[in-house]
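ingest -> validate -> predict -> emit
validate: passed (alphabet ok, no gaps, 212 aa)
predict: started
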Amino acid sequence: MGAIQGRKGDIYLQTGNATAFTGEACHLVSGTTYQISNAAKLNWDRATAVTVYVGGNPVSSGFTVQYPAGRIVFDADPGDAVTVSGKCYATTKVGYVQNYDISIESAALETTSLGDEARTYMGLGLLAWSAAFERLYENDTWAALARANATSGYRLLCKFYEDRSGPKRLVWVGYVTVTGHSTNLSLEELVRENITLQGEELIYYIDETEAA
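emit:
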């Protein structure tokens, strides 16, 4: 998949300790995607298994969990109220993004049989992703963020907006590790920072327009 480009984004850092939550209500976002209704608990602890309940009964299959977005995507309509238990982190916004590029890598294995008239492939899904962006210089905060990201165990969460016009918000969201930082000094322009990131686990494309 080619690079995804855009102009706006936000960076958040986990803070404090992971806090347990129990039986939190979730609301339907669209299709079969549900999101925890408490906006302060959107960033789930990846190290803690999330327990999903449908109609008050725990279910162990038929869904996937989007930890950085606080969402559950069911394979089919659950047909009853959805609640969730797990742990979450508080987050604080630590910066803004300008002029980003996201590179997503995937792979496929050829499964063509000898004698087939057309080639066939089996997709292996998402293998890796990375990103790079610019931002205005802000008192060398990125050096401190990179150290915290590497030593404290807290994760950086990036949201890259593909569309943020009015109430509409289409966003790529995922955890990242800082892999590079440089400062661009110019006599004719504002000082800018250039940051490169390596994605952790999956990146999700979500519609936040209906988010709580």
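The longest helix spans residues 141-151.
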